């Protein structure tokens, strides 16, 4: 049996996970997650993953590499019925929780009732460089995902990081993550979510 345990147990997001213990038929191996997250743990499929609290988008993405995800706050908080309207123009990619309509969404089968064009993927994203006018990263704080979002975004394209304003994640954490590849333009609260907008760095 193969399973993964994300540590430390008091982390609130995948970004705060510093390591993981990979259990494979009685053997243990520690995986360092201090510099990258998604790319380090997606090289294999797991029977299940034990995790601390995750953002909804993070849980949906991890569900692509395991059939069973156990979170300390209970089973999947996943999909909210709330949809946000950002009035976006052009081709838009959404990664994580399906909060925006009329997009191509990279998520998990659990989200298929909520989106029109669903792509099951984790890392790397299955799109060519400079393919989208906008990229929305909803409820995921991960450097690898931000780098991939930047790669598939056209030059001067817009990137949006959306996090729940009531999940205990401060907007400054989102700004830090998004700013590795995006120039931050503004931050605002909309219908219970922090919207952090940036343009792709050249």
UniProtKB/TrEMBL annotation:
GO terms for biological process: methylation. It comes from the Archaea. InterPro entries: Methyltransf_11, SAM-dependent_MTases_sf. Residues 115-158 form the Methyltransferase type domain. It holds the Pfam family Methyltransf_11. One of its GO terms (molecular function) is S-adenosylmethionine-dependent methyltransferase activity. Keywords: Methyltransferase, Transferase. This is SAM-dependent methyltransferase.
């Amino acid at each position: 049996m193969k399973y993964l345990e994300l540590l430390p147990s008091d982390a609130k997001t995948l970004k705060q996970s510093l390591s993981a213990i990979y259990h494979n038929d009685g053997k243990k191996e520690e995986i360092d997650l201090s510099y990258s997250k998604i790319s380090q743990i997606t090289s294999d499929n797991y029977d299940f993953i034990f995790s601390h609290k995750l953002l909804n988008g993070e849980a949906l993405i991890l569900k692509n590499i395991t059939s069973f995800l156990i979170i300390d706050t209970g089973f999947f908080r996943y999909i909210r019925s709330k949809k946000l309207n950002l009035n976006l123009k052009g081709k838009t990619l959404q990664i994580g929780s399906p909060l925006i309509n009329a997009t191509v969404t990279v998520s998990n089968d659990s989200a298929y009732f909520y989106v029109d064009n669903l792509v099951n993927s984790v890392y790397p994203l299955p799109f060519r460089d400079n393919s989208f006018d906008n990229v929305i990263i909803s409820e995921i704080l991960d450097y690898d995902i931000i780098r991939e979002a930047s790669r598939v975004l056209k030059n001067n394209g817009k990137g949006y990081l959306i996090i729940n304003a009531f999940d205990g994640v401060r907007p400054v954490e989102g700004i830090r993550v998004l700013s590795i590849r995006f120039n931050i333009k503004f931050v605002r609260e909309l219908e219970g979510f922090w919207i952090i907008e940036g343009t792709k760095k050249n």
